[in-house]
Design goal:
By secondary structure, the protein is of the alpha+beta class. The protein contains 3 helices and 13 strands. It has a domain of 107 residues.
């Protein structure tokens, strides 16, 4: 009986050691690939997508993949900032579709964004838990922007903002 318990204990220990070492290897591999450099970015908006719930695959590809700028595909300048806080919310993106997941950068309720230094190294330390692919920007003195882009949480590793943590546009981080 004691021998069986000892063997069972030994097998459990081996299993837990092998699981923890594989998690450590995966985590360190993920961390190595989660760094980047801050860069200037613009967001492409397929304007018909904001009015109609369905847009052809061709129109979406022309805008987001081929980057063909037209009256149906426009570039929006976005502030090159890092926001200390973000809210997750549901809102309508198009006039005829239901509510979808948004990341909200609301400078009326939360702290304003801090302009970042282009070229600063960053570590990507998180993503929104609701996996939002659309972001809402509310700033005093400007119209509400609903943009088809996600945001990521970063920690600045060098430059004048070293140590700053917060949320910025996914396209503003050039992955290394």
């Amino acid at each position: 009986m004691k021998v069986k318990l000892l063997v069972l204990f030994f097998l459990l220990m081996l299993f837990s050691i092998s699981c923890s070492s594989s998690e450590t290897a995966e985590t360190s591999q993920e961390q190595a690939s989660l760094s980047g450099i801050l860069q200037s970015t613009k967001v492409l908006v397929q304007t018909d997508e904001t009015y109609f719930s369905s847009v052809s695959r061709q129109e979406l590809d022309d805008c987001f993949v081929r980057r063909i700028i037209s009256n149906k595909c426009i570039e929006r300048k976005v502030p090159l900032s890092i926001w200390p806080e973000m809210e997750e919310t549901l809102s309508n993106y198009s006039r005829s579709a239901g509510k979808v997941q948004f990341c909200s950068l609301n400078e009326f309720k939360l702290e304003p964004g801090i302009p970042f230094e282009i070229g600063a190294k960053v570590e990507i330390i998180g993503a929104a838990s609701n996996d939002c692919q659309k972001t809402m920007l509310l700033r005093p003195g400007t119209a509400l922007l609903k943009l088809p882009t996600s945001i990521v949480k970063v920690r600045v590793l060098d430059g004048k903002d070293k140590g700053l943590e917060g949320w910025t546009w996914a396209g503003a981080v050039k992955r290394e």
